[in-house]
Amino acid sequence: MAEVMHSTFLTNPTVFLAVILGSTIIFILLFQPRHLSTSSPKPDSMAARSFVLWLHGLGDSGPANEPIKTLFRSPEFRNTKWSFPSAPQNPVTCNYGMRMPSWFDIHEIPVTADSPKAESDVLKAVQNVHAMIDKEVAAGTNPNNVFVCGFSQGGALTLASVLLYPKKLGGGAVFSGWVPFNSSMIEKFPEDAKKTPILWSHGMADRTVLFEAGQAGPPFLEQAGVTCEFKAYPGLGHSISNEELQFLESWIKTRLQSSS
């Protein structure tokens, strides 16, 4: 895969973008501790039932991100259901209209704090995410134990989905994402949605979704009255590190509601 990227990124920007934005799991696979098993923890009747929905980046797929769940080995995750959906094939403006797995349209790369927003496209994607959450809540999961996480484009969709959901959720975790709509959307956020805590992690060396795009998140959320914990990672580019995921595990654990 590295050879393909090096041989095409200068002559074929379409392939380059698809590879870079879809590389969520590469770092994890290369640096995953060897003692970890790839099997899921056995269910525990004492652990709270929870649901983690992971939204991938542009050009990626859900199954390619599934190894992420093997890092969450704490007993609190024994009754956790993980979902890694794949985005539909859609034309993407920044890739010259090429069709690829994409939750919504992206107008330009790199994404900056001032990049154009594809709000109508984002809102359609949000409806699909809400349907996934509704299905799990209807199956018996407490909304306070529902966590939506996403990388890059999936991180932007994570933010939009939790802020527009009619109920408070356990949390939303944004990795290398951005705010996908304008401040005028704030008035449409349900009051309960504003109670959902946000974790925002961003690499300071990100050249695909610039660090400034991540930095624009906390002020936007503060304006909306939403609690946000922002974590900057020096030297990290457009990828996810084990350090980020380890913190995510502890962040979710502290917010899980008891099964009693």
Please provide a brief summary of the model.
The protein has helices at 2-8, 13-21, 26-31, 119-138, 153-164, 211-215, 217-224, 242-253, and strands spanning 50-55, 80-83, 89-92, 98-101, 146-151, 171-175, 198-203, 228-233. The chain is of the alpha/beta class and 260 residues long. Strands 2-1-5-6-7-8 form a 6-stranded parallel β-sheet, with helices on both faces. A two-stranded antiparallel sheet has the order 3-4.
Radius of gyration: 17 Å
Please list the strands of the largest sheet in the order they lie side by side. Answer: 2-1-5-6-7-8
SSE succession: HHHEEEEHEHEEHHEH
Structural class: alpha/beta
Low-confidence stretches: 1-20, 25-41
Keywords: Hydrolase, Membrane, Transmembrane, Transmembrane helix
Transmembrane segments: 15-32
Organism: Hibiscus sabdariffa (roselle)
Family: Belongs to the AB hydrolase superfamily. AB hydrolase 2 family.
